[in-house]
Every structure is written in C-alpha cells, then in structure tokens.
Amino acid sequence: MFEGVEALAARLRATAPPVPAEGARESSPVLDPDGALVDRLVELERVKADADAEGMVIMAGLCDRAEGWIDWGLVEGHGPGPSDLVANEIAPALHLSPVTASIRVDQAHRIATVLPATLAVYGRGDIDRGRLLAIEDATCNLDPTAAAKVEQIVLPDAPNQTAAELRAALRRAVITVDPKVSEKRRKAAIRDRRVTRYQRTDGTSAIEAVLSALDTGEIYELVDEVARRSKTTDDIRTMDARRADALVVLLLGRDPYLGPEDPPPPTPPPGDHPREPEAPPDDPGDLGDLDGGDGPLPDDPDDLDDRFRPEPDDTDVQPRTEPDEPFRSGRALSELVARCLAAVLARQPPSPPWVSIHPVNRPDGQAVEVGELEGYGPVTSEYARWLDERGATRPPPAPSGRAPTEAEARTHDPPDWLDTEIRARDGTCRYPGCRRTARRCDLDHTIPHPDGLTVAGNLAALCRRHHRAKQSGAWTVKQTDHGVLRWTSTITARTYLTHPRGHHGTWRGTTIDQA
Question: Using CA atoms, how far apart are residues 108 and 66, in angstroms rounded to an integer?
C-alpha cells in the first residue's frame, strides 16, 4: 500500500506545472484536467465508509454474542455488560484507550440496531462519517420509534448536504416528530445555562457561555461591530484578536492585560490595510468583509460603498479617537478603550431577528408547526410565539410583488426593497455548502453589471470569499427560475445546483447536476 502511495505522490510531483517566473503568467494552468483525481477522492471516501460500516456491523454482532455469554453464566450478573466485554476485547487489539473503545462500541451498536437505514446509506458512501454521527447524536435521546421517523425525514436529502446543513435539518425533524418533548428539552437546556472557564496553555484560557440563541446572537453582533468599528490604519491585530479585545473592553472597561509584546511591525502606509483571513463557512458566526460590487473587489476601504447596511465593513477604518474626558478616578481613557467606547455610542439599535412559524409534514402525513429563527435555525413553535409576543423578534420579510423600474434595473445598486427581498429569498451564501447568513453577504450580479440587469433573476447572495471565487474565473454561475444557481467548475467541469433557503430554512443541500 505504501509503495502505491509513494508512486502516486511521485507522479503528481512530476506532472505538476512549473512555477512561472516572476512577472510571468501561466497561460493554461493544469489542476485536474479530466477530473480523475477528484473522482478518485470521491471513490476513496466511499471505500472508507464501506469499511467503517462493516466494522460497525461486526461490533454490533459481537455485542449480540456477548449477550449469550451473560445468559450462559460465563460472566456474573454484576460483571461488565455486553458492550463492555466487546470494548475490553477491541481496545488492545486496535490500540485504543478503554474510553475510546467503549464509545465506539456503543455508537456502533446503536447505529446498527436503531438506525439501520442510515448505516446502509453510509456504507454506500452517500454520506460521510461526520453526517452519520450527526444523525446518531440528534437521535440518541429519542426512543427507537421516534429515531426511525427522524431518519425517514432526513435521509433523502442527507447525501446532498454538508454536516452543518444536515444538523439544521435534524433539529427541524426532531421538533417535527415530537414537538412537546423538544420544547421540554429546550427548557431543560435553558435551565442549564452557564459560563465556564477552561484553562489553556501558554498563559491563556477560554470562556464558554451557554445562553439562549437570541442572547448569544446579539452579544456576538455587539462584539463583532465594536471590533470592526475600532480598527485604525495602524491596527495589525487579526479580526479574531480584535473581537477578543473588544469583549474585554465591553465587560471590564479597560484594556486587556496581554503581557509584554514583541516590537510591533512597521506601521502600514496609508491605504495599505492588511486583509483578514475569513473563517470557515460552516461556522455559523463567521462574518467576513463585505461588499456588493461585481468589478475587482477592492482592498482599499475608500473603494467600498454602503450596500451592506447592517454593519460597517471589516476594513472600514476609523480615525484615531483622542479621549476628551477622564475615565474612572481620573485615569485617562486608553486609545483602544476610547475607540471601543466611540463604536458603542455610534452603534444603531440592533434590528431584531425575524422568526417564522410554518407547517412541516411528519412521515404519517400530520402537519406540525415548526419555528425558524434568523441566524440560528429551527426552534419549537412555542418558543417562536413567545419571542414574537414579547417583541424580541419580527415577522420575516414578505415579497412585495414589485419589479424594478427600467432605470433601477440598469443601475448597479439594487433599491432597498429588492436588496431585502433577495437576502430573504436566499437565506445564506449561495455557494455550495456555505452557510454564511445572506444578511452578511454581497449581492452579486450573476451576469456581471452592466451586461446583467439589477433584477431578482440576476442577483444572489455570495459571501466575500465565494464572490471572489466566482470573479476569479474558477467557477461559472448561471441562475435559473426561482433563484436556483448552477455552479460549474472551469477546472474539472463538475456542476452543482444550489437552492434558495429563505425564511423557511429548507436545507436541500447541494445537488450534483447530471445534465
């Protein structure tokens, strides 16, 4: 096996295109011209899934045999149970710790006995281990009958979804199958809210706060906005570091105690602002730099406009703020605290998220109401109504039925009502698998402006990363009826369809287009 891997690595190195000389540009870059390497990766994932599924069946079978050992009296009644016997056997054989072996055996036995259809789909390689475990985790507290109903709801779309998309679908399915039990679990989870501190290495620690979805969303929005508004031209901190410092300032009213620092790098010249790497798109809180243009995406904040109104752009650099008044017992405000304070004072009241309630059909045909909370996902209808009654949320935006005038259709920026409708229609970034909320995305012209009109059928939400991917030429995009996007890789010719998610939160996933 190792010789095969080494031979493949050598072949890939030998066929890699040479690095062009400085100033030169490769005329025809080659990544995977016939798609064979990507196809091989897909095949290997299926082989791994098939082997893993077989291992689960074997572990479940060993547990069944261990039941016989106990029945025959070979193990005393107060001794280890069947799964313990199997875990004790496989731990030394597979060089696993006893805890790891026990977890694997328990998972395998539950999946094989309670979720056989899921295991079959996994064994065919239609879903990966992450999605398999997502289904197991979502149903582990359900009785076998309810688990089977959840499985029946989510499995048809699971092969086209990422693990994060599937988890959203699972939350909705669990609520649909048993809304009363779901509301009971939600109340129990709220009672267990907490703030916990974890020690880390190198003089740092982490704080985890378990709060309601609405509270965590508003807290994160505040921290994020203060971090974005408090950046200056000579600020060399990453976006994550700025958020961390903003949290300290907001809670303690002072600079963070970071300890002695190395000499700072040279101050960037005016207009040369370092870009921040974006967080992975499956992170529900990841908030990238934003713009709505279709031309070359700017690096200079002077080129940015205000098409993304809810928050300032990550690169929206604020001027230095000199403190005018003392802070606490005559101590002068530091520059960081002053900038954060100015950002808080300049902040507009947060717009409440929308919440919707809509019917979802159970496998038996009965309709059950399920809520959808903007920025979070499925919630119980009881909780959704409670939020709505207290004014903590607003209704989802409704289509206006309007069409842009000829003048509006030929301008680059959509009118406010159309901007709102497109973001409500799409729900998230429309790149395959990306879950960044549309509220924090660019509105991209599928056919670039001015050739393409500013109309609903030519606009779609794309996060900055995937906006750039489209404009790089690595992907071509076509928009069909009802906002469906067809993404085609110019490198491998693989084609995918993505569907609007909207306020109903229908996570249909990414369909491989066979056309």
Answer: 15
The two structure tokens encoding residue 383: 């909780």
Phi-psi region of 433 (alpha: psi -120 to 50; beta: other; left: phi over 0): left
Q: What is the pLDDT of residues 275-303, one digit of tens each?
A: 443 443 334 333 333 333 444 443 333 33
| Confidence (pTM) | 0.73
> Residue 16 has which token pair?
């890699």
Q: Which two tokens stand for residue 76?
A: 């005393």
Within 8 A by CB and 6+ apart from 155, the residues are 117, 118, 121
Which residues lie closer than 8 Å to 370 by C-beta, 6 or more apart?
172, 175, 176, 179, 357, 358, 359, 360, 378, 379, 380, 381
Kindly write down the DSSP assignment for every residue of 382-399, as one continuous string. HHHHHHHHTTSSBPPPPP
β-partners of residue 380 are 370
Per DSSP, what are the bridge partners of residue 358?
Answer: 370
Look up residue 382 and give its amino acid. Answer: E
Q: Report helix, strand or coil for 116.
A: helix
Which residues make Cβ contacts (< 8 Å) with residue 223, sequence separation at least 6?
243, 246, 247, 250
CB-based contact 332:193 (threshold 8 Å): no
Q: How far apart are CA 456 and CA 492, in angstroms?
A: 29
Cα–Cα dist 254/236, whole Å: 20
CB distance 274 to 349 below 8 Å? no
